[in-house]
Amino acid sequence: MAVIEAIDLTKTFGGPRSRPVLDRINLSIEAGEVFGYLGPNGAGKTTTIRILLGLLTPTEGVVRVFGGVPGERDELRARLGVLLENSGLDDRMTAFQSLDYHAHLYGCRDRRRKIEHLLEFVGLANERNAKIGTFSTGMKRKLGLARSIVHDPDILFLDEPSAGLDPEAQLMVRELLQELARTRNITVFINSHHLDEVQRLCTRIAILHRGRIRASDSVENLRRGAGQDRIEVRLADAPQAARAAGLLRERGRLARISVDGDRVVATGNGMRAPEIVTALVHAGLEIEEVQRPARSLEEVYFEIVRDEGVTA
Ligand SMILES: Nc1ncnc2c1ncn2[C@@H]1O[C@H](COP(=O)(O)OP(=O)(O)OP(=O)(O)O)[C@@H](O)[C@H]1O
Ligand SMILES: [Mg+2]
Fold it and tell me: Quick one: which of 49, 152, 153, 167 has the fewest CB in 10 Å?
């Protein structure tokens, strides 16, 4: 059953003639999924989360979280954990006080033990009594993350959880989320610009661009993905690779030919490896290796967001 749903969700800021920020977005996220929501700056990722939390209302369309209208029922709100871009922590509180306040608000039991454990996990145990006002960006981010899960939510909304975090802390966030997904069947909705993180963490992603979802699937399926095909041929040496590239360019049809040392990479539609290999062998070239590498998530992403001349 879907725990997060959007049906033709449309959001327009300003007058009716303004271009919609979100234009008929459809989402259906099942319990236990780790869903990555990608898109360039200004694509509407934060707006989507704010609507799913009930902080903004849709202009048109419907959203449901646990089958209900977001923000309407307190008992549903208690099942959500949230880390927004601006974490909204009170600078005058200590790390411990901040978590304790939040846990108290949600009626958590066994608060002290849980908070100590979380502080330890996010690496803030030594700062437990330090005022948040003295924290670095990354420390606030870690505390925000701890706060978002202190009440054991069933859905976690994270708006760029690793922004401002060093590589070690990014790893910590990833491990934490993997553990939560594995042990608690928690559903995670992550806005991120961090393609590597998304690739390692998410069971499914959607790429948002110019108000619409342009692709939505598992990372693996997107990488194997529609249309574009790619063949990489390693030749005996660089001059042969250059000759091979010339030859393949003459054949036309192939969308893009590039040379990298002794390798030539051909990317295009309907490319048949046997034909390419035969043509190169007939030209007297010595082939050392032929590969069909999958595209990286980065390549998939740029193909989508570069369309219409817009870059991330
Ligand atoms: N309250 C608001 N009033 C008017 N326009 C808004 C408001 N909130 C967001 N917008 C506009 O909506 C668009 C999407 O913003 P949003 O913050 O959702 O993007 P984002 O995908 O989260 O971007 P980023 O990657 O930079 O965080 C932007 O053009 C932004 O200016
Ligand atoms: Mg944002």
Answer: 167
Q: In the chain, what are the domain boundaries?
A: 2-223, 226-294
pLDDT tens-digit map of 80-91: 999 998 778 899
Distance (angstroms) between ligand 2 centre and the Cα of 45 equals 5
Q: Which atom of ligand 1 is the closest one to the Cα of 191? A: 22
CATH among 1.10.569.10, 3.40.50.300, 3.30.70.3040, 3.40.50.2020 for 2-223: 3.40.50.300
**Cβ contacts of 149 within 8 Å, gap of 6 or more:** 81, 118, 156, 176, 180
Residue with CA closest to ligand 1 atom 3: 13
> How much of the chain, in percent, has pLDDT values that exceed 90?
61
H or E segment and range at residue 114: helix 111-121
Using a 6 Å cutoff on CB, does residue 295 contact ligand 1?
no
pLDDT digits (tens, 9 = 90+) for 100-124: 999 999 888 899 999 999 999 899 9
